[in-house]
Amino acid sequence: MAVTLPETVLARYERFSLYNSPYPAHDGGCAIDLYPGTLTDGRTTAAPSPVAGTVRETRTVRAPPKPYAPEHDHLILLEPADSGPLSGLTVRILHVDPSVQAGDRVEPGDSLGRLVRAGFFAPWVDNHLHVGVRGPDQNPYRATGSLPIELGVSVRPLEWDGTGRVVSSGDTYAVLDAPAHPDPGTEFVGVRADGGGVLDGGLPHYDGGGLLEPTDSPAGNGADHVVSLNGDRLGVADGRTIAWDDVTVTANGETITGLSVFCARDEDFGAKLICPDREFERGERVRVRVRSSGDR
User: Fold this and answer.
1) How many CB atoms are located within 10 Å of the residue 86 CB?
2) Residues 6+ away with beta carbon under 8 Å from 166
3) Could you tell me which of 208, 290, 212 has the C-alpha nearest to residue 257?
4) Three-class SS state of 234
5) Which range (38-42, 75-79, 269-273, 288-292) has the least confidence?
6) Predicted confidence (pLDDT) per residue in 23-76, tens digit
7) How many CA atoms lie within 13 A of 41 on its CB side?
8) How far apart are CA 256 and CA 267, in angstroms?
9) 137: burial class by Cβ within 10 Å (0-12, 13-18, 19+)?
10) Residue 176: other Cβ atoms inside 10 A
11) In sequence order, what are the residues at sequence separation of 6 or more whose Cβ sits closer than 8 angstroms to the Cβ of residue 194?
12) Minimal CB count within 10 Å: which of 79, 103, 248, 256?
């Protein structure tokens, strides 16, 4: 069984990703990260609820120990309204310090609290809500086990030749000006793989990624096939899930940690380089390639 998140839910957020995470809860696209805005450096903001419903429970949970993050995160369980698309299911939300409590009613877009950065976050990850959906007979407290999520919105694939200029950077990342969103604030876009489909995930710093594309494609029909970008082989897709090859991402010929790809509709969309050991100057022109690790 899979659940579909309609456009009315996803359009409330600036970005989303099914696969850009190191945690097993995202395996097979069984969870989604929803980004209300482009937030970095530990900023907090209101966390808009994806659905209408009633708060079933909130609780504090332990997070992986990280020197830059608190030891605890928070779990919110929502029972969606009977009139909504997820009626009868349970919505499981993490990374929000709740301002709501059991029994509270919320409408779509109502704030659930403040976004927080716990040890589940790598330092280059922006603030977001982690959302999973459980069936009525499933344990809502386990980290894994949510239902696969289908997208009720189309994502426009953008061609990208692997080049761009740095427009912003932090201690662990740099963002390029390409590919640029052709009409910010409207449709969701993503980086197009060779042969079609939108890439989603952390290459190769997370174990795998996704290829979001129509069901009439090879991946959509469940057939395994090689996925590449600008002629560089990335891995093999089994359905929409990609197992990355043993590859290395380079920027101007130097190895970096990886490339972050996702779906977005904001004007700041662009390829995101994960590079905690490499600095890029604003305006610097960069060429990104993916090589087999054995070729280094």
Assistant:
1) 22
2) 174, 175, 176, 177, 280, 281, 282, 283, 284, 286
3) 290
4) strand
5) 38-42
6) 999 999 999 999 997 544 444 467 999 999 999 999 999 888 888 888 899 999
7) 4
8) 25
9) exposed
10) 24
11) 227, 228, 229, 230, 231
12) 103
Cα(135)–Cα(90) distance, integer angstroms? 6
The DSSP-derived string for 3-31 is EEEEHHHHTTSSEEESS--SSGGGGGG--
Question: Are 118 and 70 a contacting pair, CB within 8 Å?
Answer: yes
Is this structure's pTM higher than 0.85?
A: yes
In the three-class reduction of DSSP (H, G, I as helix; E, B as strand; rest coil), residue 295 is classed as helix
Phi and psi, residue 3, nearest 5°: -115, 145
28 bridge partner residues: none
- Cβ–Cβ < 8 Å for 30, 142: no
